[in-house]
Amino acid sequence: MSLERVPFELSKEYLDLVLRAVEQRDAGFIRDTMEGVNPADISALLDEVETDEARYVLDVLNNEVGAEVIEELEEDTRKEFLEELEPQEIAQYIVEMESDDAVDIINDLPVKTREEVIAAIDDPESAAHIQELMRYDEDCAGGLMAKEMIVANINWTVIQTIDEIRRQVENVEKIYSVYVVDDKNKLQGKVSVKKIILSRDNTRILDIYDSDIIHVETYMDEEEVADIMRKYDLDAVPVVNLQGKLVGRITIDDIVDVITEQAEEERALMSGISGDVEEDDSIWAISKARLPWLLIGLVGGTLGAWAIGFFEGSLERNAALAFFIPLVMATGGNVGIQSSTLVVQSLANRSAFEDSISKRIGRMFLVAIFTGVVLAIISFLIVFLWKDDQTLGTVVAVSLVCVVMLASFMGTATPLALDKLGINPALASGPFITTTNDILGIIVYLAIANLLLP
Amino acid sequence: MSLERVPFELSKEYLDLVLRAVEQRDAGFIRDTMEGVNPADISALLDEVETDEARYVLDVLNNEVGAEVIEELEEDTRKEFLEELEPQEIAQYIVEMESDDAVDIINDLPVKTREEVIAAIDDPESAAHIQELMRYDEDCAGGLMAKEMIVANINWTVIQTIDEIRRQVENVEKIYSVYVVDDKNKLQGKVSVKKIILSRDNTRILDIYDSDIIHVETYMDEEEVADIMRKYDLDAVPVVNLQGKLVGRITIDDIVDVITEQAEEERALMSGISGDVEEDDSIWAISKARLPWLLIGLVGGTLGAWAIGFFEGSLERNAALAFFIPLVMATGGNVGIQSSTLVVQSLANRSAFEDSISKRIGRMFLVAIFTGVVLAIISFLIVFLWKDDQTLGTVVAVSLVCVVMLASFMGTATPLALDKLGINPALASGPFITTTNDILGIIVYLAIANLLLP
C-alpha cells in the first residue's frame, strides 16, 4: 500500500523527475506517481519524451492503462512509438481498446504490420470485430462505430438484461442505452439503464422499451452523423446496416473529435495551409504546407501584373490611377471572403427548408448593391477631397460597386459549386477566392478607368 | 389508440399540411402526426412558420414536448415567439426544462418579463435553482451547469441510492454518473449506474465509489471546461464552488454547443463579419455585419494609396514598378494569415508544455527566411524573363523576402499579443492582419525600389 500519494501535476518539474526515473530504471517512482492519474495526462507527458523513454514508462504501467495512454498520444508520437514495438506487443494493447479505437490505430500501421497484429490478437471475438470494422471507410458511420454495446432481445426480462450487462461489463465502458433488437437482430428501440434499475426483475423489455429511436446507417458520412447527433442531443447512436440489423454504435466522444477536425480542416483551408501541420512542427514541414498557396498567390500576382501591364498607357497618362489599385483589390478580397463564409456557414447548418440557389444569389445581389453603393460614396468623397479629381473619384466609385458585386457573386457561387462537386466549400473562403478576386478587381478597375478617363 | 401512425418526414409537403391544419384548427391532425416525433424536428418545422401558427401547434402539444421544441428553436424565432406569450405561459414551459436550459431562455427575455416569469413558476425548487444559476456569468462553468443530477451520500447503501434515483427520475433526463458527496456536500467521487446495478442492495457507496474524479469550478471559462471535457472524453463533469461543494453538473451536449459556437465565432472573425449573422438574415442585418470591416479595409486602402502617392516620383520614372504592387501585397496578406492561423491553432490546443515565445518567434523567422527566399527566386525569374530588367527583378525579390518576414512576424506576434490581452486571437487571422500587411507591404516594396532603382 502506498502511504501517501505524491500529488500529480503536469509540469516541467515532474517531467524532469520522470526522465530521471527512466534513466535510473526506477519503476517504483513511475508506478507510484502515475497511479490513478488520468491516461490523457500521461499521454501529454509522453508526447514530450523520446520513444525509448516512453516505452519504458508504458512497460511499467499495466496494459489497460497503457492502451488508453497510446490512444491519447499525438498522432506523430504514436506512430514513432508503435514503429518500435513488435506486432505481439501492439496486439496486447489493442485487445484492451474499444474496437473503434483499435481499428483507428491499426489503420495507421504499415499494411504488413496490420496483418501481423491482427494475427497476434489472442481473443477471437476482438479480432473478428476489428476485421469487420476495417472493412468500412474511415469517414463514414461504419468507420466511426464500435462493436461494444449492450444489446437486449425484445423478449428478454429485465433480469436477463442485467445478466447481459454483467457479462459485458468488462468490454463496454459506457452504457448510455441498452439497444433492443428482435430475433433477427433488427433494431427495435432502446431502454435506458435508469428504467432497467427502476423496473422489477421479471418485467419484459417489450413492456418498457422505447420504440422512438434515432439510428444511422453504416454508409452515412461522418459529418452527417455529427449533424444528427448534435441536432438531437444524442450521447450515442446505434448503427444499422442495409438490412436494418444493428451492427454497432457511435458515441459522442468520437463526434466531438469529428467536429474539432472539421473546424481545423476549415481553418487550414481558409488560411491557405495545405495538409495537417502544427505550429511546433519542423521548419521544413511548415514550409511545405505553406508554399503551395503562396506559389499560387504568386502566379495570381503575376497575372495581376500582366493585367496592369495591359493598361500601361493609362497608368503613364495618370500615375494617380495606380494609387487606388490596392484599395479596389483589398475591398474585392474582403467582400469575397465575407460572402463565401456566410455560404459555408449556412452549408454547415443545413436544414430541411433550404432557400433555393436563385433566392440566395438574389439576396447576395441586393446586399452587394447596398454595401457597394455605401463604399462607393465614401471612396468618391475620399478621392475627390484628396485629389480634387471628380473623374478619378467616379472611376474608383464605379469600380467599387462593380467589384463588390463581382466578388459577392464569386464568393457566393464558388462554395455552392464546390459543395455540389463534393469538395469542402471552405476552400472558397481562402486564398483561392482572394487571388481570383484580386485579378478580377484589377481588370475591372483599370478597364473602367480606360473607359472614363480621357 | 391511433390505428396507423402517419410516417413523419420533414418536408415542404408536410409543412403545407401542417399550415392547412393550423388554418382549419385541426388539432387532431397535428397531434396524430407529431406524436413520437423528435422535438428538434418539430422546432425545425416551426422555424419556418409565423409566430401565431407556431403558437397554435405548441398549444396542441403537451407542455413537456412544447418545452423541448422551444429549446431547439432558432434564437430569433424563439425570441419572437416568447414575446407573444404571457409570463404565466412561459413559466409553464420553463418548469418542464432542465435548469440550465431554463436559465438560458430566461436570460434572453426582457428584464421585467424575467421577474414575472420566475414569480409565476409554481415549483419552489425549480424557481430556487433558476435564481441560483442566474447569478453566474453565461460564459463560465456556473453559467453552463444544470442543477439536475443524482447525488448520493458516501455513507448510503446501493438501495438508498436507487431510491434517490427513483425520487429524481422525473427531473434528471440522463444520469451518466451518480456523484458521491460527504455530509457537508463536498464532492468525494462518483459511481457509475452500471456499478450500482451490479452491486448488492446493501453494499455501501463508500466501498464501490471511484475517488478519481475530474471536476471543474464555477468560475472556470467555458472554453477551458470544453478543453477538459474533450481531453478526458467526459460525458458530464461535476461543478464545485470555492468551498469544494458540489453545486451542479455540465453535460456534453452543452459542450458540443460551446465548441460549435467557438468555431462559428472564429469563422466570423477570420472573414471580417461582425456580430452573429446568417446567410438567410435580412439584407440590412447582413450589410450591417459586413460594412464595419469593409470600411476599415477602405481606410487601409486609402493609407495604401497615400503611401504609393509618397513614391509618385519613382512610379513616374518606372511605370512597371506599379505592376508588382498587387503581387507583393497579396503575398504579404497570405503569409500573415497563414502565420496567425498556425498560432491561433496552437493556442486552441494548449498543452502543459508550451514552447516559449522566443522559440516560437525564432521558428517563425526561419520558416519566413526559407519560404521568402523560395518566393524571391521564383519572382526574380518571372520579372527577369518577362521584363528583362535585372534591377526590377532584384527589387521585387528583396521586397518579397522582407515582406514575408515582416508579415510572418506580424502574423505570429499579433495573435500572441491579443491572447495575452484576453482578446480572441482569431481576430488576427482576418482582415485586420491583411489590411496591416497590405500597407506595410506597399511601403517596404516602394522604399526598396526607391533605394535600388536609379
From TrEMBL, chains A, B:
SMART domains assigned to the protein according to its UniProt record, in alphabetical order: CBS (SM00116), MgtE_N (SM00924)
Taxonomy, superkingdom: Bacteria
Transmembrane segments: 291-311, 323-344, 365-386, 392-418, 430-453
Gene3D superfamilies, per database record: CBS-domain, MgtE N-terminal domain-like, SLC41 divalent cation transporters, integral membrane domain
Metal-binding recorded as keyword: yes
Membrane topology: Multi-pass membrane protein
Location in the cell: Cell membrane; Membrane
Residues in CBS domain copies: 145-208, 209-265
GO molecular function: magnesium ion transmembrane transporter activity; metal ion binding
GO CC, alphabetical: plasma membrane
The keyword Chaperone is annotated on this UniProt entry: no
Key words of the record: CBS domain, Cell membrane, Magnesium, Membrane, Metal-binding, Transmembrane, Transmembrane helix, Transport
InterPro entries per the UniProt record, alphabetical: CBS_dom, CBS_dom_sf, Mg_transptr_MgtE_intracell_dom, MgtE_N_sf, MgtE_transporter, SLC41_membr_dom, SLC41_membr_dom_sf
Subunit structure as annotated in this protein's UniProt entry: Homodimer.
Family named by the database record: Belongs to the SLC41A transporter family.
PANTHER family named among the record's database cross-references: MAGNESIUM TRANSPORTER MGTE
NCBIfam families: mgtE
Purpose: Acts as a magnesium transporter.
Protein name stated in the entry: Magnesium transporter MgtE
